[in-house]
Design goal:
By secondary structure, the chain is mainly α. The chain is globular.
């Protein structure tokens, strides 16, 4: 898989990992007696995955042109994810005045996995540029 375009590699890994994690997340919720698709779980995985894909693709496309700014662009991508969280997810989670653990996990688990994958693939990209 090393000769495959890094963006294709990233997308394959991202979809595979998020897909597997989503099914594990749903299975754990179901086995614990909680609604398996509550707390905007599907939206959270989709939005985090789409944002991670868009951010990495943009970083890859502009890697040569903005070589010295990749780190700042990466942080801007994380900032964008937080803005999306506070606009899309937070109002729904705080509607009852409290954000419980299930709501937190529904957003944070896919966010953290996407962030880890973005970090690993961006670091690999930067190493190849050196």
């Amino acid at each position: 898989m090393s000769k495959t375009n890094p963006t294709i590699q990233f997308l394959i890994v991202l979809i595979a990992v998020l897909g597997l994690l989503f099914f594990i997340h749903v299975a754990l919720l179901r086995s614990s007696g909680f609604p398996p698709y509550g707390n905007m779980l599907v939206w959270s995985y989709l939005v985090n995955g789409l944002l991670a894909a868009a951010i990495f693709i943009l970083l890859y496309v502009f890697r040569k042109k903005l070589k010295n700014s990749i780190g700042f662009l990466f942080m801007a991508g994380s900032f964008l994810k937080f803005i999306v969280f506070f606009i899309v997810f937070y109002p729904s989670y705080k509607i009852d005045g409290d954000m419980n653990k299930l709501e937190f996990a529904a957003f944070f688990v896919p966010y953290a996995i996407c962030l880890i994958l973005e970090t690993v693939f961006t670091a690999k990209m930067l190493q190849k540029m050196s």
